[in-house]
Amino acid sequence: MVALEQFYTALIAVLLLIALGVTVPVLGRIVRDGLERRRKRQAGELERYTEDEEYDRAARTLRPDDDPAANGRVTCRECGTRNDPAFTYCRRCTTPL
After folding, report:
1. Within 10 A of 70 (CB to CB), how many other CB atoms are there?
2. Pick from 93, 50, 54, 90: which is nearest to 74 by CA?
3. Which residue ranges make up each domain of the chain?
4. Torsions phi, psi for 63 (to 5 deg)
5. Looking at the predicted structure, is the pLDDT value of residue 44 above 60?
6. What pLDDT, on the 0 to 100 scale, is given for residue 46?
7. 44's torsion region: left (phi>0), alpha (psi -120 to 50) or beta?
């Protein structure tokens, strides 16, 4: 008869092998994609930095309703993201506030 501890140890080992078998192909695709992007950047086929479609990093001016004292938020002058007043750096672009 197999001891309960041995059964649990074998079960954990099998589950770890299954998890490893699932993650290795995914990690391989991530590495291949990164190497392909690096090759394209070096060949000039891809821009070094691509802009996020959701936000434009161009400097924005503050509107009167963006006053930190009025709404308790601090708006980043670089990207326009609203941050908590306790933040030292913008949560989006990491520019000092």
Report:
1. 9
2. 90
3. 1-46, 57-97
4. -90, 165
5. yes
6. 73
7. left
